[in-house]
Amino acid sequence: MPGLYIHIPFCRQACTYCDFHFSTSSLYRPQLVSAIAKELDHRASEWQDEPMNTVYFGGGTPSQLSSQELEEILNAVNKNYRLTNGAEFTFEANPEDLTEEYLKSLKSIGVNRLSIGIQSFRDDDLIQMNRAHNAQQAIRCVLNAAELGIHAISIDLIYGIPALSDAAWIEQLETAKQLPINHLSCYALTVEQGTPLAKLIKQGKRSNTDDEQAERHFRILQQWASENNFSHYEVSNLAKPGGKAVHNSAYWSGESYLGIGPSAHSFQNNQRRFNIPNNQKYIRSLEDGDAAHEIENLQDHERYNEIILTGMRTLNGIQKQKIKEINPKYYLYFHKLLENHPDKDSIYITETSIKLNPSAWFRADGIASDFFYLSK
Fold first, then answer.
1. Residues 6+ away with beta carbon under 8 Å from 95
2. DSSP character string of 206-223
């Protein structure tokens, strides 16, 4: 069943590493909220026969919205879409926004899963990343959410930060272990072009990232997960029993989803839609009925490549039947490349799947790209 993603492109301030679409200005926020509601109205006819299994508010920082703004969007959701019984409703939030009052309002509108952008429990790291919260706020908001009855809680942490020693990274994980969370997302610090971090490194004001350090931190994460009842089910995602993210898992398995808001993506029937990543243009386009967007019809080899890329990153691996359904030639193509691949001993094939040994997961994206089918 499909999922619904709603992109909220507002942030209190710009994190140094972030290259997602967002704005630190609230100048057009009321108009954009109304535009999101309009897009939900407009696109409902595309999905009338399919109940939504998940709702996910991402960003940006959805917790920048007021309770009234959230209700305006949710009214449009409830008016136009059917949700499955017990649908997962995830809401991304930053610690500084999660006051007791705000948490109560989230629970009252049906949020049953929080994804909290903590990134670090060390104040020095948070300052370097230009985050708006401190370590104490990070811990307190998780405890408050659990006390108020939100029991599905995920937190984000970043490793590979130049000043983060191996011992300090272990301490980060041990802090997470003490909190009432059932999901953990961990990402290596990546220097993206055009971000403030990239500029600071170029100016010599910050140290560049170190792949060897990041790999050590990843190995520490793997070992920690195995010792603490966390299933490392995707390269960047770990969960306690029953805590896997339903919405994101659907992305990785190639299921359909509807993306609403500026820069949001949708996928349905081998067609991908990309909304324009510009708030004012998005608002203006909705005045004419639909968000400005581009459509990409995926060719067979592009679908194959996506299956390889996402499957290599997951514990469940690549489902062989999905490749064969596109065209059996791609399965034969994969096997031919596998014969001479330097990591062939890290790839094993079961009756139904192709899996990458977790010992090679740190290089998963690079290994997957070696098996891409390049059109001529």
1. 116, 117, 118, 133, 137, 138, 140, 141
2. SPPP-HHHHHHHHHHHHH
Evaluate whether 93 touches 99 at the Cβ level (below 8 Å): no
Read off the pTM.
Answer: 0.95
What digits encode the pLDDT tens for the residues 30-41?
999 999 999 999
pLDDT at 297: 96
Phi–psi pair at 128, nearest 5 degrees = -60, -35
Q: How far apart are CA 351 and CA 334, in angstroms?
A: 16
What DSSP string describes 17-57?
A: T--SS-BS--TTHHHHHHHHHHHHHHTGGGGTTS-EEEEEE
The CATH 3.20.20.70 domain(s) of the chain lie at 3-251
Residues paired with 8 in a beta bridge: 59
* 300 neighbors 326 (Cβ within 8 angstroms): yes
Q: Which of 20-34, 109-123, 173-187, 318-332 has the lowest mean pLDDT?
A: 20-34
Question: 341-372: per-residue pLDDT in tens?
Answer: 999 999 999 999 999 999 999 999 999 999 99
Nearest to 50 by CA among 118, 1, 101, 99: 1
Q: Which helix (H) or strand (E) holds 297?
A: strand 293-297
| Contact (Cβ atoms closer than 8 angstroms) between residue 95 and residue 141 | yes
Which CATH superfamily is 3-251 part of?
Answer: Aldolase class I (3.20.20.70)
Residue 368: exposure state from Cβ atoms within 10 A (0-12, 13-18, ≥19): buried
